[in-house]
Amino acid sequence: MLRIAFFALLFALISCPALISAQNPASPPAAGSPQQSSEPAQPQSIPAEVAAAESAIASSDWKTAETKLDAYLAAHPTDARALFDAGYVADAQNRLDDAAALYRRAIAANPQSFEAHLSLGLLLARQNKFDEARPELATATTLDPGEAGPELKARAWRALARIDRASDPATASNDLLEALKLSPETPEDTLLAAELAEHAGQNDAAEAAYRRVLAKDPHSVPANAGLAHLLILRKQYPDAETLLRAALLSAPDDPTLNAQLAAVLAAQDDAEALPLLQKLHDAHPADPAITRMLAEVLAVAGDYAGSDQLYLHLLAASPEDANLLVAHGQNLVRQARMEEAVKVFDKATQIDPANGDAWSGLAFAAFRTNRPDVTLHALTMRSRTLPEVPATLFLWAQAYDTLHQKQQAAAYYHRFLEAAGGKFPNQEWQARQRLQILEK
Questions:
Q1: Rounded to whole angstroms, how far apart are CA atoms 312 and 237?
Q2: Fewer CB near the terminus (10 Å): N or C of the chain?
Q3: 329-374: per-residue pLDDT in tens?
Q4: Model confidence at 19, in pLDDT bands (50, 70, 90)?
């Protein structure tokens, strides 16, 4: 059976949809048509050159619009409307740096421009510049959207909710509620609400939200993946398998659904998990979560060398990842490469002194390389974060026995026998033999 940590990798796969919906360059950016600009607080005439550019924008004739706006802005560099239009055109052509600069100039010319703040915030969010995006979006929520309408202000609130969901789920929930005051709930809202409920530990509420989405759209990949994740957390593997196999009929190549199915099959010791993960890895060789899961399943299947090649590949990119080092060290132990394992586990404990698995590995590998003093130190450190189990009790006893500390060795042999309960016959026989000698 795979470790629980194995399933934690799935969370990364199911909780990383595009943070902010990317806009199609063919139907530009955030704030609606430039003709609907809310910038002028009172009616004013639109310069002919700007009007002509906006007519070209309406026809998606970006090059004509760009040419007209460039010429106009050369003579009128602080015209807020023209600057926003120019940013809009650059955004539509995926010239994101140019667009951001033009939106900033539009804001400098008119700090009350709802469209400029919103468009800049969404653009920065699409670039994963969330610290810069958030203030722009927050400002947009305080401004009058004018003819752009409340639905676009709702878009600012939704973008804030997606930015806040990782760092502050409570604030994200409030953001989403503000959006719903301005526009009807969408399936994306329901999915976000489900995710926020799950972050808050409200799994029943999250499940209800996912099922609401699936009632309207049974083929929704995010909803199926989210519900499957909850079923996996509850170890309802047969239910998760049924759900995932049905979802894969309409999305057979989706990496998240395939990874979840592989995890469910592995949890049920189903041999189908390995070829499924190998196929998934072949299709997504650069995906570290998939690579990690395949390495885990290969180790469970006994292919320690194959598993270790994948862990070494992951470590090349993340050499300070203590959990990867532990997995690598465990494969070295399984291949009887104990000296190498000691070095790897020792490095893992230095990186993460609270990693109980690293101390466990070091204790075992050190004992196998005749370093019982290191074993005792490692077991002492391990005991600060993890409870004793029969295997560690037996290792304590052996280490003390090797150091000829008879009283301590006998005490741990007795503790081991009490905990073993007949489940470790070979070690229990050894413990009884040693106690006969130690207690003579």
A1: 30
A2: C
A3: 999 999 999 999 999 999 999 999 999 999 999 999 999 999 999 9
A4: very low
What is the pLDDT at residue 44?
59
Per-residue CA distances from 160 to 116, 165, 217, 288, 371 (Å): 16, 8, 26, 28, 55
Nearest to 348 by CA among 378, 380, 376: 378
Q: 3-class DSSP state for residue 376?
A: helix
Is 414 in contact with 394 (CB distance < 8 Å)?
Answer: no
314 pLDDT band, cuts 50/70/90, is very high
Task: Give 36's DSSP letter.
Answer: G
Task: Say whether pLDDT at 275 is over 50.
Answer: yes
Give the contacts of 332 (CB within 8 A, at least 6 positions apart): 308, 338, 340, 341, 344, 365
Evaluate whether 310 touches 290 at the Cβ level (below 8 Å).
no
* Per-position DSSP letters for 156-206, written without gaps between them: HHHHHHHHHHHH-HHHHHHHHHHHHHHS---HHHHHHHHHHHHHTT-HHHH
Under DSSP, is residue 126 helix (H, G, I), strand (E, B) or coil? Answer: helix
- Taking only the tens place, the pLDDT of each residue in 323-338 is 999 999 999 999 999 9
Residue 264: left (phi > 0), alpha (psi -120 to 50), or beta?
alpha
Task: Provide the 10 A C-beta neighbour count for residue 161.
Answer: 24
Contact assessment for residue 159 and residue 121, using Cβ atoms and an 8 Å cutoff: yes
Q: What is the mean pLDDT of residues 229-242?
A: 93
Task: Flag whether pLDDT at 46 surpasses 80.
Answer: yes
Indicate if the pLDDT at residue 43 is higher than 60: no
Q: How far apart are CA 255 and CA 245, in angstroms?
A: 13
Q: How far is CA 404 from CA 93, 210, 261, 407, 411, in A?
A: 77, 61, 51, 9, 13
- What is the residue whose two structure tokens read 């130190």? 377
